[in-house]
Specification:
This protein is mainly β. It has two domains: 98 residues, 2-Layer Sandwich (Alpha-Beta Plaits), CATH 3.30.70.330; 140 residues, no CATH class. 5% of the residues lie in helices and 47% in strands. It has two helices and 18 strands. It has a seven-stranded antiparallel β-sheet with strand order 1-5-6-2-4-3-16, covered by helices on one side. β3 and β4 form a beta hairpin. It is elongated. The chain starts with 6 loop residues before the first strand and ends with a helix. InterPro entries: RBD_domain_sf (IPR035979). One of its GO terms (molecular function) is nucleic acid binding. This is RRM domain-containing protein.
C-alpha cells in the first residue's frame, strides 16, 4: 500500500445543518477506507482540519487468534470543538481511495457539555468578601466547560515553553457560597467574569505530548490526560512554579461579543 498524502477529490456526503458552528462538537461517518489503514492515520488526516476528540474504526470479528478484529472500511470521527471551516465540502482521498464523509448526529461524546472560549483564567484569593486578588493569570487558549451530567466545571489552558495543555476540574458540590459575576461594558467590547471559591484545590491534568493510539482501531483524547498529584513532577504551571493546589479561588473572564452566538 503506497503511503500518499490525502488530496482533494470530488465526493460529498450528508452535510451538517447550517447552524453547525454553534455546536459544541460534531461527528462524521467516514467510509470507503482501505481496510489496512490504522486509526492513527485516519486521525492524522482529519486533525489537519480541527481538534479531533475521538476516532474509531468499525471492526468485525474474524476467525484469527492473532488478529481477531478486522476493519470494515468505515470509521467515525468526532471533533470537539467544531472545526473552523467546512472541510466536508472538499472530499478527501487517502491511499488511493476517495473518502465518503457523512454527518452523523448520533456519534457524540458520552457526556453533555456546555463550552465557551474564555479570554483569561485568574487564580488567587479573596482578601474581603467579593474582593478578589489575582496571583496568576493565563490567557493562552483558555476554554471553559460545564458538565451538568457529572456536576463539574472544567477549565483548559496552555502555558509554558514548550507549551503544555493543562486541565483544571472543580466539583459543583465544592463551590462555597454563590458564584460572583461582574459585567464590564465600559470598553469598546463587552466583558463579563465569574469568580468561584472552592473548598478544595482543583484536580489538575496535563495533556501527554506523545499521543499514540492504544490500538489500531481506537483513539480518544481522554486517554492522554495525566493526573497531577501533590508529589508528581510536572511542567511549570506558573512562572514561579507554583502548583495549582495553592489556590482555591478562580476567575474566568469572557469576551461577551465572542460567545454571544453560542448556546
Amino acid at each position: 500500500m503506497n503511503k500518499k498524502n490525502p488530496r482533494i477529490s470530488s465526493r460529498t456526503g450528508i452535510k451538517p445543518p447550517s447552524d453547525w458552528k454553534t455546536f459544541f462538537e460534531i461527528g462524521f461517518k467516514v467510509s470507503n477506507i482501505h481496510t489496512e489503514v490504522t486509526v492513527g492515520e485516519i486521525k492524522g488526516v482529519f486533525a489537519t482540519y480541527g481538534s479531533v476528540y475521538r476516532a474509531k474504526i468499525v471492526t468485525r470479528e474474524v476467525d484469527d487468534s492473532e488478529n481477531p478484529e478486522r476493519s470494515t472500511g468505515t470509521a467515525y470521527i468526532l471533533f470537539k470543538p467544531v472545526p473552523p471551516r467546512p472541510f466536508w465540502n472538499e472530499s478527501l482521498r487517502l491511499h488511493g481511495r476517495v473518502l465518503r464523509i457523512d454527518y452523523r448526529n448520533d456519534f457524540r461524546s458520552s457526556d453533555s457539555f456546555y463550552s465557551y472560549p474564555a479570554e483569561s483564567l485568574e487564580l488567587g484569593d479573596y482578601i474581603l468578601p467579593n474582593i478578589f486578588v489575582s496571583e496568576a493569570k493565563f490567557t493562552q487558549s483558555v476554554k471553559f466547560f460545564i458538565s451538568y451530567q457529572n456536576r463539574k466545571i472544567i477549565v483548559e489552558l496552555k502555558y509554558g515553553e514548550p507549551m503544555y495543555t493543562f486541565k483544571l476540574e472543580f466539583n459543583f458540590d465544592d463551590i462555597i457560597n454563590d458564584i460572583y459575576s461582574e459585567l464590564d461594558v465600559s470598553q469598546q467590547r463587552s466583558h463579563g467574569s465569574i469568580t468561584i471559591e472552592n473548598k478544595y484545590p482543583a484536580k489538575c491534568w496535563v495533556l501527554h505530548k506523545c499521543q499514540k493510539p492504544k490500538d489500531k482501531f481506537n483513539w480518544c483524547i481522554d486517554d492522554f490526560w495525566n493526573r497531577i498529584t501533590k508529589n508528581d513532577k510536572m511542567p511549570h504551571f506558573h512562572k514561579d512554579n507554583d502548583q495549582p493546589g495553592k489556590w482555591l479561588v478562580f476567575r474566568i473572564t469572557f469576551d461577551l461579543d465572542q460567545i454571544g452566538g453560542l448556546n
